[in-house]
Amino acid sequence: MKRLLSEIGTVDQVGIEERVAKYGTRSLKKKTKLFGLRLATTMVDLTTLEGKDTPGKVASLCQKALCPHDQGDVPPVAAVCVYPSMVKHAAKHVKGTSVRIASVATAFPSGQAPLKTRLAEVRAAVADGADEIDMVINRGAFLSGEFALMQDEIAAVVEACGQATLKVILETSELETYDNIRAASFLAMRVIRPNDFIKTSTGKTSSNATLGNNQVMLDAIRDHFIETGVPIAMKPAGGIRTAKQALTFLIAVKETLGDEWLNNRRYRFGASSLLNDLLRQLEKERTGVYQAPYYFSEAAESY
Asked: Residues with catalytic annotation?
């Protein structure tokens, strides 16, 4: 770890916290705010990851993904994200549309299964129609300093994905420090492909995406891009529930990586409960009146 950090640099924790605190002071005017709300809507991975998921629930999820709201010309979301067993059901509704099918895999959320089993799960999801795979890294290998093992496993998943986009979940709360998050980001970025993603969290732990760990990962993406010219995408997941939070995260993206990352090919929100608040704010901008939360469909309020 010391050798890796001497190569990539350490994180100034105080500096990160001061920087992200300033993002919340930015004021967005009406047209800019409306643009940001619509943009954030197109970046949502609308998700259901529950043991009680059914084909009917997935159908409802897909309907909301394609048409989030029947007022105000609201754009579709980026993707629906489901367990591998539900991919074929999602494909019936969104395959061939702008909405992509994402599937968590590799023994999500723990990652505690033999590599052979994890790779089989990836291949099965892709065969059923998944356009994107969200994998979890081997946190035990990383924390034990077995960096080559961690990278070899990610590389194996890249191969198993074929043409599907890969999102590598670091599970930042279990990495514990900003230096570890930066190190894990670089290790992942060095073996994934251009426009694959690094992702903060599974959404299944007590602490998920924060502006701080999001910023550490954005800085790593910037530094990696400067060094290699390879663009890597980013997905904060879990804990982002309000439109105001989403707009603050987008300010961080614009000020760190620039406009080339302000699209759903390079930035996503893994936070389905965010969508209804985005819709509520869009309706407020359209009508001047806040609607009650129950005015909007509650399809798949999850991570």
From this structure: 134, 199, 235
